[in-house]
Amino acid sequence: MKDYVIAIDQGTTSSRAIVFDTDFRMVATGQREFEQHFPDSGWVEHEPEDIWDTTVATVREAIAKAGVSAGDIAAIGITNQRETTLIWDRDTGKPIHRAIVWQDRRTAPMCERLKADGLEPIFSKKTGLLLDPYFAGTKVAWLLNKVPGARARAAAGKLAFGTVDSFLLWRLTGGKAHVTDASNASRTLLYNIRDNAWDEELLKILEIPDSLLPVVKDCADDFGETTPELFGAAIPIRGAAGDQQAALIGQACFERGTIKSTYGTGCFVVLNTGEELVRSQNRLVSTIGYRLRGKTTYALEGSIFVAGAAVQWLRDGLKILDHAAHSGAMAAQADPNQQVYLVPAFVGLGAPHWDANARGAIFGITRGTGPNELARAALESVCYQTLDLLDAMKADYPALSDAALRVDGGMVASDWTMQHLANILGRPVHRPGVLETTALGAAWLAGMHAGVWPDEKGFASTWKLDRCFEPSMKSDARQRLIKGWRDAVRRTLT
């Protein structure tokens, strides 16, 4: 009996594989970190072979730890860092360049030129996105323009483009599947989310030949099978979704108006808007939440580029803490009479500002400022940025209630951070029993399509609350802190 489902969670700083049983419990996990490369200011790259090697290694590790064989696995679901862009040779499978990561800002001048030509409204209307280096389309154009011979090879149909899911699917299936899912396609600046099709006009503007593009499938679909030699037997791949959409699913946010926030390297707030494609007037993005059985569910999303990455900077850059997990305890010990603000615009600012040229800054430092105050400022910055996103969502979607925000990701393990988040938002924050909701969402897509897991209603009934954080800060104190934050952000904008 094939009783297990594997989720591959390929993230920005590590790859993970998690084996789930039929009761949605995590049986075993494999995880490997890999290096990020910063070849120039605002540039972020990954070595594609690092992505591939760590993915395969973690799946093997998780299967071994679970004490099962590949033959016991009903299906694999994949979730991934979304806008990270790869182009590879169709014959060899070898990438033509390092992966350009979603955080990368090298195409900011290209985006500005396109805006100056009055093209942003065309892109926004068709894709729901903004002309920003964050999204994949301009990264593809950069690779074609900058890698010697790439444009000619692409025109000849010898190259393939994909986000990380596509690259993994190509490799896992031995080059048989050049596919993606609707949620990842919707992050490329090349996909018409109303028509659910690659857009010829946008491809022409960016000079990207359609021969590069993968086939777009539902999030729960037949994505092929792994080659038997990888894991000991062929395993069906039956689910794929970008990491934030997978987290929306893993949080069981299937109803219109439900909302979740994920705190990993960045922070991403996603609101389910159902069949309605809501056009943001506040520089949020409209996107595909998921597509199941041919039916598209839309979402509003706000992205913060730096969340957990701010704590990693304190650890690796400033070396003022040994482990990221210590940040909450340090914040609790910070001097309450100091108010230090960190604006973590290390790679520009995301929603609702979308300032690619903004850079990080710290305000309010005194001679008495030390590691504890900086740790608190880093954690607080995540809370303030979340508030900025929710305020923008409320303006775009007045029906957004003051109901609890469902949270997930590595940072939510910090009680101090979650309590401060509830205080700043002025709404309850719900931490679920399963924190690995991104992986759980990918697993559900695969397990549901394979027939071993229940449908949306059945899955939603299994969601469990770990802890509710209720706001406890007085209104005047809250407003004072928010005013200081907004002044700090204003000073960093270009």
What does this structure look like?
The protein is α/β, with parallel strands linked by helices and 494 residues long. It has two domains: 4-243, Nucleotidyltransferase, domain 5 (2-Layer Sandwich); 251-432 and 464-494, Nucleotidyltransferase, domain 5. Helix content is 35%, strand content 22%. It is built from 17 helices and 22 strands. It has helices at residues 48-66, 108-116, 120-127, 136-146, 150-155, 164-172, 182-185, 200-206, 228-231, 243-250, 308-317, 327-332, 371-396, 415-425, 437-450, 456-460, 475-492; strands at 4-10, 14-20, 26-33, 45-46, 73-80, 85-89, 99-100, 159-163, 179-181, 191-192, 197-198, 215-217, 237-242, 259-263, 267-274, 285-292, 295-304, 341-343, 361-363, 405-408, 429-432, 465-469. Strands 16-17-15-14-20-21-22 form a seven-stranded mixed sheet, sandwiched between helices. Strands 3-2-1-5-13 form a five-stranded mixed sheet, sandwiched between helices. α10 packs across α15 (437-450). The radius of gyration is 22 Å and the shape is globular.
Principal-axis shape equals globular
Number of domains: 2
- Kindly report the spatial arrangement of strands forming the biggest sheet: 16-17-15-14-20-21-22
Structural class: alpha/beta
> Sheet with the most strands?
7 strands, mixed
Give the proportion of residues in helices.
Answer: 25-40%
| Average pLDDT taken over every residue | 93
Given this structure, which CATH class of the largest domain is correct? Alpha Beta
Comma- or semicolon-separated keywords:
494 residues, Nucleotidyltransferase, domain 5, 22 strands, 17 helices, five-stranded mixed sheet, globular, 2 domains, alpha/beta, seven-stranded mixed sheet
